[in-house]
Specification:
The complex is a heterodimer of chains A (about 55) and B (about 525). Chain A is an alpha+beta fold and about 55 residues long. Chain A has one domain. Chain A is built from three helices and two strands. Chain A has helices spanning about 5-10, 20-30, 45-55; strands at about 15-20, 35. A two-stranded parallel sheet of chain A has the order 1-2. Chain A is flat and about 40 Å long. Helices cover about 40% and strands about 20% of the residues of chain B. Chain B contains 21 helices and 19 strands. Chain B has helices at about 15-25, 40-50, 55-60, 75-80, 85, 90-95, 105-110, 120-135, 150-160, 200-210, 235-245, 260-270, 285-290, 310-320, 330-345, 360-370, 405-410, 420-430, 450-470, 490-500, 505-520, and strands at about 1-10, 30-40, 65-70, 115-120, 140, 165, 170-175, 180, 190-195, 215-220, 250-255, 275-280, 305, 350-355, 375-380, 400, 435-440, 475-480, 500-505. In chain B, about 50% of the residues are buried. Classes of the chains: A alpha+beta (about 55), B alpha/beta (about 525). Chains A and B meet through helix 1, strand 1, helix 2, strand 2 and helix 3 of A and helix 1, helix 7, strand 4, helix 8 and strand 8 of B.
Chain lengths: ~55, ~525
């Protein structure tokens, strides 16, 4: 069955990197299309508020 | 002694960057201790542990930067904190023009994305991974400290959607030749591998490359995937995909012993697999030998390997290659080394101390030592009876996993930064009973750019310490890497030899040589 994971194995990777920038740099150096997200804790780190925001989105 | 701290509200940096800043600050003359971290609960506890407590720190939030210094004089504290912008300068220079701050921002920029690589702090990782899966992305989850219940929910969600979660706590992967996380430059080829053991997966792929063969895909599962709580969801997804992948002709699985029910489930799956399977379950032999036939679905060549090296040999044989035979007996050169090294030891020198960056290497080494009748103590022991009372206190033969949480909470992993291993090498050399120092070095993307250089002086100093006592310290090392890695494998090997180490191309062979040294055969 052609699942999105099986497709990944056979297609160019297009990555979103959340967190450590060195992983995005490493992907870039390998010629991979990558988008670096300079992630920050959602809702200033308040988990309850972040849960609430997730539900609203 | 003086101390001080500074809090910057809403100024978030990733942990590897902050570790670099902290290292530079800690090198300032007169600074005794420093901490540069985000104000998460775990980090605030770390600060309390070094004696820095304040109501303002208690009130700091996870996206507030906290910098704390203990120094010889108040002037030094003031100087360092006053120059904070200078220390943080590389982040300012490297900052993107329009910063993306969330997965949603990333998706807006790359709507055709097919993979999320997630390395945010563990307490937020499951939330981000769930959002990525819901957006249809496969996930490589580097973050650790994700609760196992969350892991199960994520993997069930992924399975329903035909996606995969590689992780959590997934250090490495190779998808279609692209290295994820800590990975090596490895050519493509017909051997597929699934690994619940990060450095084990790196060792396997490097050895396949170094033998002239290649990897189709190397899929990390995270260390708990084969536990009965998770049931191997990621491993089974990977197996289905590799079975149907036209590039892959043999599939190897590398892991510590799986849970009993998960192993049964895997064996059932192996029986129906159209491609040969190589099972390498480190740490336990007896129980698995009984089921070895399950790994040989006729007419394919497959089998059960007890070390990563054996798994490589079996995989190469399965694709019709001719692997170099594993050395069962020491070469004439090795025999000479054994005689030479032992001749230098003082009468009381008898113990091995292994200091590992790779957790899989620490585990596999214990297994090899145990098979040779040499039980070793460890902070990550094969059996609980040989657990060290404290990770910092070696006794008799000891092997230490320096990538363990005790050493990496709030600190860089030894694959990135050799500071703690340097200190431990020197400390071990002061024990007059230590005869052999065993080290591993891991090259590749993400790893230290000069892992041998970082430990070079400590290795030389340790040997001098032993010589001053009238003995000698034998240093045995292995390097996990390829000729394509950015660190220059040949240079790193040469440096190690210059430092006086005996160097092997695999961790298993280094461990076997140590057995010969200790037994004298």
């Amino acid at each position: 069955m052609l699942t999105p994971f099986v497709e990944l194995l056979d297609s160019p990777i297009v990555a979103i990197n959340l967190g450590l920038k060195m992983f995005a740099e490493s992907l870039e150096s390998q010629g991979v299309e990558v988008c670096q997200v300079d992630w920050v804790p959602p809702a200033g780190g308040d988990e309850e508020l972040a849960d609430l925001l997730d539900k609203l989105m | 002694m003086a101390s001080g701290f500074l809090i910057r509200k809403n100024q978030y940096y990733d942990s590897v960057f902050l570790m670099g800043v902290n290292r530079r600050i800690s090198e300032v003359k007169g600074v005794q201790q420093s901490a540069v971290l985000m104000g998460s609960q775990a980090n605030k506890e770390l600060l309390a542990a070094i004696g820095i407590r304040d109501a303002q720190i208690d009130a700091a939030q996870p996206n507030d930067l906290v910098v704390a210094i203990v120094a010889e004089t108040p002037q030094i504290v003031e100087d360092v904190l006053g120059r904070l912008d200078e220390w943080l300068q590389p982040a300012v220079e490297g900052a993107p023009v329009s910063a993306r701050r969330s997965l949603e921002d990333g998706l807006a920029s790359k709507p055709n994305a097919n993979l999320a690589v997630i390395s945010v702090p563990g307490e937020y990782a499951a939330r981000e991974a769930r959002k990525a899966l819901e957006a249809g992305l496969n996930v490589f989850l580097f973050s650790s400290n994700v609760p196992i219940e969350e892991e199960l929910r994520l993997k069930e969600l992924a399975a329903r959607r035909g996606l995969i979660v590689m992780g959590p706590d997934c250090g490495t992967g190779l998808i279609g030749g692209v290295g994820l996380g800590f990975a090596n430059a490895v050519r493509r080829g017909p051997i597929g591998v699934i690994g619940a053991a990060g450095t084990g997966l790196q060792e396997f792929t490097c050895q396949v490359h170094n033998a002239g063969y290649g990897i189709s895909h190397a899929i990390g599962t995270g260390s708990r995937d084969l536990s009965d709580q998770i049931g191997g969801i990621t491993a089974l997804t990977a197996l289905d995909a590799l079975e149907n992948d036209p590039q892959t002709r043999v599939i190897a699985i590398i892991s510590k012993p799986p849970g009993t029910r998960t192993l049964e489930r895997l064996i059932e799956r192996f029986k129906g697999c159209r491609k040969p399977i190589i099972g390498c379950f480190l740490g336990v032999r007896g129980n698995l030998t009984d089921s070895a036939t399950a790994f040989r679905p006729a007419p394919h060549i497959g089998g059960q390997a007890s070390t990563i090296d054996e798994a490589v040999q079996l995989a190469i044989a399965a694709v019709g290659g001719e692997p170099a035979a594993l050395p069962t007996l020491p070469s004439a050169e090795e025999q000479e080394w054994v005689v030479r090294e032992k001749a230098g030891w003082a009468p009381g020198q008898r113990y091995l101390r292994g200091l590992f960056a790779g957790g899989t290497f620490c585990y596999q080494t214990q297994q090899i030592l145990q098979d040779a009748g040499i039980p070793a103590h460890s902070n990550a022991p094969l059996v609980q009876a040989r657990a060290l009372a404290h990770p910092d206190q070696s006794r008799e033969h000891t092997v230490v996993d320096m990538g363990d949480e005790y050493y990496t909470t709030g600190r860089p992993h030894p694959m990135i930064d050799g500071t703690l291993r340097r200190q431990r090498i020197v400390a071990e050399s002061r024990d007059p009973q230590v005869a052999v120092l065993l080290l591993d070095f891991i090259l590749g993307y993400g790893a230290s750019m000069d892992p041998v250089g970082e430990l070079y002086n400590a290795i030389v100093e340790a040997q001098q310490t032993a010589r001053r006592r009238g003995g000698a310290l034998t240093v045995v090392a292995s390097i996990c890497g390829t000729d394509g890695d950015p660190q220059d494998l040949a240079l790193q090997t040469r440096l190690l030899k210059e430092a006086g180490a005996i160097v092997f191309p695999s961790s298993a062979r280094a461990a076997l040589f140590c057995c010969r040294l200790l037994r004298g055969d």
